[in-house]
Amino acid sequence: EQERTFVMVKPDGVQRGLTGEIISRFEDRGLKLVGAKFMQIDQELAEEHYGEHEDKPFFDDLVDFITAGPVMAMVWEGQDAVRQVRSMMGETDPAESAPGTIRGDLGLDLGRNVIHGSDNEDPGANEREIDLFFDEDELTEWERID
Ligand code: CMP
């Protein structure tokens, strides 16, 4: 099923110059970019985006980290896009991520793991995150030629 997923290159990935490489990986895989925004996340958006983690001991650090510099927020579309992106990203912890995955190749540690992608264990997380970051008129329908 064609679906959309929310992905963002986190501040560590932007600062280390990895944005282009990450976009290329998704393009090469055949996914379609339908929205992108280079932006600074404020405190309120960070707390809402990571709301499910508000009781975790690392919550404040997570919010500080994600607001520390610009991110590249994106929406990618394709067959089973949520699962595809999750498998390309690897595990949350780069040390647990296989070589060939984005975090396995580029991630440094649990905090500096370069990228976020919508969870597939949390039904509807992709649509919620897309709605949180993008207005409908910021998403563009187009056709890839492969
Ligand atoms: P992400 O997929 O963006 O979703 C929540 C983030 O919390 C996760 O990636 C990690 O970067 C971060 N995270 C998870 N566990 C820890 C932890 N124990 N310490 C610091 N950060 C964490």
From TrEMBL:
It is found in: Cytoplasm. GO terms for cellular component: cytoplasm. This is Nucleoside diphosphate kinase. Keywords: ATP-binding, Cytoplasm, Kinase, Magnesium, Metal-binding, Nucleotide metabolism, Nucleotide-binding, Phosphoprotein, Transferase. One of its GO terms (biological process) is CTP biosynthetic process. The keyword Nucleus does not apply. Gene3D superfamilies: Nucleoside diphosphate kinase-like domain. Residues 2-141 form the Nucleoside diphosphate kinase-like domain. One of its GO terms (molecular function) is metal ion binding. It is an enzyme of class 2 (transferase). It comes from the Archaea. Its EC number is 2.7.4.6. The active site is at H116 (pros-phosphohistidine intermediate). PROSITE patterns: NDPK_LIKE (PS51374). Belongs to the NDK family. Major role in the synthesis of nucleoside triphosphates other than ATP. The ATP gamma phosphate is transferred to the NDP beta phosphate via a ping-pong mechanism, using a phosphorylated active-site intermediate. Its cofactor is Mg(2+). ATP binds at K10, F58, R86, T92, R103, N113. It catalyses: a 2'-deoxyribonucleoside 5'-diphosphate + ATP = a 2'-deoxyribonucleoside 5'-triphosphate + ADP; a ribonucleoside 5'-diphosphate + ATP = a ribonucleoside 5'-triphosphate + ADP. The keyword Metal-binding applies.
